[in-house]
């Protein structure tokens, strides 16, 4: 027990110091997640041995950190987005990546052995670390943007579909037994959502009591959220399903039960999660990396990362490129951004390699290399994704070809392409402006239309001023805008609030599609 508390003290110290270290790095281009993983690898049992991550208590806390990570990820995802056009395309693309991943597995026999090994390798290449990406997307100001929504659409299936596939394809049970368990879990989730939703709609005494005591010492809303999370995680653990699935489901249920954003509850959840449990999860995940094994086999690490790009990123780029609607088709650099962000992988690599090593189809050294590769993607893929998001080029492939042919003229070539992109951006701004005006003109009530126009103009100005002064807090202002939009809409209408992006774009959306939301 003493050693466990020493390890926890070291973990808490790392979690407290890492933000300061990240702040000292120029331009803060290394995510805190990467530093947490690296610290865990250095201080874990395979190196200095200060952190004893094999302690059962620490393993439980780490699992809770993973659960919190995916609870918050599930909460951010609208179930409607899974069945939307983007969501369906994300699922189809994932299915293609699974087939491609298994095909690539035959080319990489050094990763795993046997038919089950090929399936495990294929699944490793299809995953997206959506839970890991959520804080990165939030810090980079991508949540609520078109690029961010597409990352969620592709990334959700890269996480959710992979978890379900792992439960079915790598389970020691028969497929029908796993299907029955998954169905039972779905029915449990529906029951919780229906009972909770009915209590909220009728406003019965129990719900009123919960709401009244939510901010007291009882913290009733927070405790019930924890109950739902731990109940579904326990269900997953009892039936030997990855806890990610239970945590994801808890996030979906929480979103359904809190259709109006509960900022107080989310502040408490994020404080608990990001303040302790999630950093602990990343540190413990890092402690499982055997750096000596990685150093002995750097080639496999590079090959696996390249395979991830081929299997996961390339199909997403192709999927985004076949969009027929020119208004919805992303520019090349934004397609690359979505693809690279969606190729970030880690938590499920840890889970799948753990299952594979238990089945003795992947060696422990190979598993360490693959987990290390996953950790590298947490740093590398968001970095490339953010660079491609910010660096705008009208014709990137042509620019690269011209630079390769005449490297001495790189400055002239880049300048010419920058001018082209500015011209294209101006054209898209005009298209966006006309689109906004059409949507405003479609509002029949003149007073509502006038107020909506003023609201759009005010929020556009707020966005512009805010992004210039403090970009990293964009998520907070978006919540404010959603509340304002919802209030104005309910002033004139009943029922569900439409997507606010049907009325106007934020500045980040302008960057996504080279659009500007300025209204005359």
From TrEMBL:
Residue ranges of every copy of the Cation/H+ exchanger transmembrane domain listed in the record: 13-384
Localization of this protein: Membrane
Membrane topology: Multi-pass membrane protein
InterPro entries found in the cross-reference section: Cation/H_exchanger_TM, Na+/solute_symporter_sf
Membrane-spanning ranges: 6-26, 33-51, 57-78, 90-113, 119-137, 149-170, 176-200, 221-254, 274-293, 300-318, 338-357, 369-389
Chief location: membrane
UniProt entry keywords in alphabetical sequence: Antiport, Ion transport, Membrane, Transmembrane, Transmembrane helix, Transport
Signal peptide bounds: none
Family as reported in the entry's similarity comment: Belongs to the monovalent cation:proton antiporter 2 (CPA2) transporter (TC 2.A.37) family.
Protein name per its UniProtKB record: Cation:proton antiporter
Species classification: Bacteria, Bacillati, Actinomycetota, Actinomycetes, Bifidobacteriales
